[in-house]
Amino acid sequence: MKLHLHLLSDSTGETLENIAKAALAQFDGVEIIKHFWPMVRSESHLERILTDVAANPGLVLFTLVNPETRRKLERRCRSLGLPAVPALDAVTDALSNLLGQEAKTRPGRQHILDAAYFARVDAIQYTIAHDDGVGWENWEEADIVLAGVSRSSKTPTSIYLANRGFKTANIPIVVESPPPDALFHLKHPLVVGLTTHADRLVQVRRNRLLSLNQTPETAYVNSDRVKQELQYARRMFADNGWPVIDVTRRSIEESAAAIINLVNERHLAESESEGGGNSGKET
């Protein structure tokens, strides 16, 4: 099945694209022809877009805050018999009702360069500079430190977490080369161990060697050797009481979400401890 998808935004359209991507992931066998229209802020611009919409009928998904621009788009779509869906309206209306205040009608308001934006940039810079055990002297500045054997998704997970605003360092666990002693004395960062199934890890490593035109038959991909590495890492995680995430069947996003949950649980426990309160929560 072929579908024309028109995405209209009065800002960069990043939010709209992410919403569309998440929704489309629920459907198979659909050929999407995407028409992307960011920075829609004038009637003349909208007119040009509507000409394309009429020529390529399909679903219209939009985030437009200007009332007149919205009305014009919705009127034209109705006349064409096309669905026009305001992607954020349901969430905005619910928040407005709960908060008792009207939403701001400012294009691109979510992209204001506020403190959170600069914190995210800072987290990305820190994470890139502390990949693969580099800069261990500054690990105490991290929010999260990921530990795991080679090819256990440490770097991509670190980068994803950085994009969510978490300063993330990572360290490879190697049997012949123990990590710096500083790893075992960190106070501020949450240290998380990453593990995976041995068979899966062997396959990932073998593919990596092939991509580098290297021989795929070395100790690096020996099954017994890989199992030994994983056992060594798991023992280290257990001895230090670090939480462990099994990434075998998880995407990077899913692993990161699990790690963020651990961070939030830790912060909650710390705040309850400082407040001297008892949540009554059973585990």
Structure description:
With 283 residues, this protein is an alpha/beta fold. The protein folds into 2 domains: 2-109, Rossmann fold (3-Layer(aba) Sandwich), CATH 3.40.50; 115-275, Rossmann fold (3-Layer(aba) Sandwich), CATH 3.40.50. It has 9 helices and 8 strands. It has helices spanning 14-24, 43-55, 67-80, 89-99, 115-129, 154-163, 198-211, 223-240, 252-275, and strands spanning 2-9, 31-37, 59-63, 84-86, 144-148, 168-172, 190-195, 244-246. The protein has a 4-stranded parallel β-sheet with strand order 2-1-3-4, sandwiched between helices. A 4-stranded parallel β-sheet has the order 6-5-7-8, with helices on both faces. Strand 1 (2-9), helix 1 (14-24) and strand 2 (31-37) form a beta-alpha-beta unit. Helix 2 runs parallel beside helix 3, helix 5 (115-129) runs antiparallel to helix 6 and helix 6 (154-163) crosses helix 9 (252-275). It is elongated. The chain starts with a strand and ends in an 8-residue tail after the last helix.
Please give a quick description of this structure:
The protein is an alpha/beta fold and 283 residues long. It is built from nine helices and eight strands.
Blueprint of the fold:
Layout: E1 2-9, H1 14-24, E2 31-37, H2 43-55, E3 59-63, H3 67-80, E4 84-86, H4 89-99, H5 115-129, E5 144-148, H6 154-163, E6 168-172, E7 190-195, H7 198-211, H8 223-240, E8 244-246, H9 252-275
Helix pairs in contact: 2-3, 5-6, 6-9, 7-8
